[in-house]
Specification:
By secondary structure, this protein is of the alpha+beta class. The chain folds into 3 domains: 261 residues, no CATH class; 145 residues, Mog1/PsbP, alpha/beta/alpha sandwich (Protein Transport Mog1p, Chain A); 53 residues, Membrane-bound Lytic Murein Transglycosylase D, Chain A. The protein contains 20 helices and 17 strands. The strands form 4 sheets. A 7-stranded antiparallel β-sheet has the order 8-9-10-14-13-12-11. The protein is globular and about 70 Å long. The two termini are 21 Å apart.
Length: 498
């Protein structure tokens, strides 16, 4: 959640779910790529990418301005050049995102994105090239074209009914909000790839690695690290309140996928013998920002704190929290909520009306009731609820707005099943200004690459990392270490430090 919060763009918001891409045109199979048939990105594909790129940059934290960005760009363009796509090195755009979630995705036209958090999970250059190659594979095989056709067959706008497009599509302020309760809405542009398409992208990633001389087993070792990370997140979810989808987790067969990629790689020339470039990669990784960027706010257990803007609120136990660059989304079985801001002119009632208006499109106003007023933690608050039906389910859409100062206001929008108690009541009542002491206590975490010394163990190094739980599991996951793996003096490992 950046210093300046804006309304979210639905068309790109759900890209965090697996490897997702807005729609494309045309079609080609991996067989063409394998046979060295050269093809070129079409003008329409390039147009889609150019138009999506600025929205994606805003939605997912923007570019991570660091030396690592140039390194990622170089590796991405290099691996794309082995895809069989003509002019790939010149035409591909590879971006390292300032995002605290494990994710990578692509859009048509040669636009590849990877988050710094996913990069931190990697252990060598071959794994980085493998992930980027997987995304190049989605573009090379034009997988998004098949997803777009499926979405059109579903006739999503018709399914949503009268209010669906207002809440879930276009210039809506909801972002990801409403996907679970309203069904398939914003998946028009964010449908997950099929299992077969993910496998095909894995295979293409292996192919590109082999052509580039990398160890092709890097795809399977990266998938193994992701399986460890996903398992850790599931165990920690209830305690941390933080749950974010990870790259390559579209399907629940992680172990099978690891084995499948390893088997595929074993048939290649560079399986187990190709370059890994671990030392160079770790040197690049050292100092990388890890987890939340304090400039965008941080999740601390069940508490979200924005030290720069000076506010905080508590989230419900067991609910997931996604801190985007323009909004914070909270979701669980009982409903979904999104926290953001809008322009404020010192009239809180008008602010609430403007939020409801922003949720509607094409003059399709939400039928909200009388606006109530109260005071929360010394701040004036206004609120109202609209009960709506999308043809499938009746829900309550509520807006809760706070006057932070004479020229600034914030708000929650919640979606809950109609007539039920709002599970976000305590969260709504917890919004407050933070003290200077709490704001100053928020510190950034970074990756620190160290050399294992005599007497160092997994337990001793893990105990130094700034986490309240699962320290040893986090250390092993970060370094791709099995439960029985031991450290040796002189070995390079990653730790997390302030």
């Amino acid at each position: 959640m950046a210093k300046r919060l804006l309304t979210s763009a639905v068309a790109v918001s759900a890209l965090l779910i697996g490897c997702s891409t807005p729609g494309s045109v045309g079609g080609v199979s991996s067989a063409n790529a394998a046979q060295n048939e050269v093809r070129y990105l079409t003008d329409e594909e390039k147009k889609i990418g150019r138009e999506a790129h600025p929205q994606l940059m805003q939605e997912f934290g923007g570019a991570y301005d660091s030396p690592q960005a140039a390194y990622v760009e170089r590796i991405g363009k290099d691996i794309a050049s082995y895809s069989g796509l003509g002019n790939a090195r010149e035409e591909f755009t590879v971006t390292l995102l300032n995002s605290p979630v494990n994710n990578a995705f692509a859009v048509p036209g040669g636009y590849i994105y990877i988050t710094r958090q996913l990069m931190a999970l990697m252990n060598d250059e071959a794994e980085l090239a493998g992930v980027l190659g997987h995304e190049v594979g989605h573009i090379d095989a034009r997988h998004s074209q098949r997803r777009q056709r499926a979405a059109k067959r579903n006739n999503i706008l018709g399914v949503l009914g009268q209010i669906g497009s207002a809440i879930l599509l276009g210039d809506s302020a909801f972002g990801r909000l409403g996907q679970e309760l309203f069904g398939r809405g914003s998946q028009l542009l964010t449908l997950s790839y099929s299992r077969g398409q993910e496998h095909e992208a894995d295979d293409l990633g292996v192919l590109y690695l082999d052509r580039a001389g990398y160890d092709t087993q890097a795809v399977s070792t990266m998938l193994y690290s992701l399986a460890l990370q996903n398992a850790l997140e599931k165990r920690a979810r209830g305690q941390t309140g933080r749950s974010v989808p990870s790259w390559a987790s579209t399907h629940p067969d992680s172990a099978k996928r690891v084995r499948r990629s390893a088997k595929k790689a074993a048939k290649t020339e560079h399986s187990g013998t190709g370059k890994r470039n671990r030392e160079a990669f770790l040197q690049q990784l050292d100092g990388l920002l890890y987890g939340d960027d304090p400039e965008q706010g941080v999740v601390q257990g069940n508490r979200f704190v924005h030290p720069t803007l000076g506010f905080a609120f508590n989230t419900p136990n067991g609910y997931s929290v996604n801190n985007g660059s323009r909004a914070v989304t909270v979701q669980g079985q009982g409903g979904q909520a999104q926290f953001s801001l809008a322009p404020y002119s010192n009239d809180l009632n008008a602010y609430v009306r403007s939020v409801f208006d922003a949720l509607a499109k094409d003059n399709n106003r939400l039928p909200y009731g009388e606006i109530g007023r109260t005071t929360i933690n010394g701040m004036p608050m206004a609120f109202s609820t609209a009960r709506v039906n999308n043809g499938r389910q009746t829900v309550d859409v509520s807006v809760y707005a706070y006057e932070y100062s004479s020229d600034r206001a914030y708000h929650f929008v919640t979606i809950t099943p109609a007539g039920r108690n709002n599970p976000f009541g305590q969260m709504i009542g917890s919004f407050a200004k933070v003290s200077g002491d709490e704001a100053s206590s928020v510190r950034a975490k970074r990756i620190d690459v160290i050399t294992v010394g005599q007497g160092d163990t997994v337990a001793s190094l893990a105990a130094k990392m700034p986490f309240d739980n699962y320290q040893e599991e986090r250390f092993r996951t970060l370094n791709g270490l099995a439960n029985d793996a031991r450290l040796t003096p002189g070995q390079k490992v990653k730790t997390v430090t302030f």
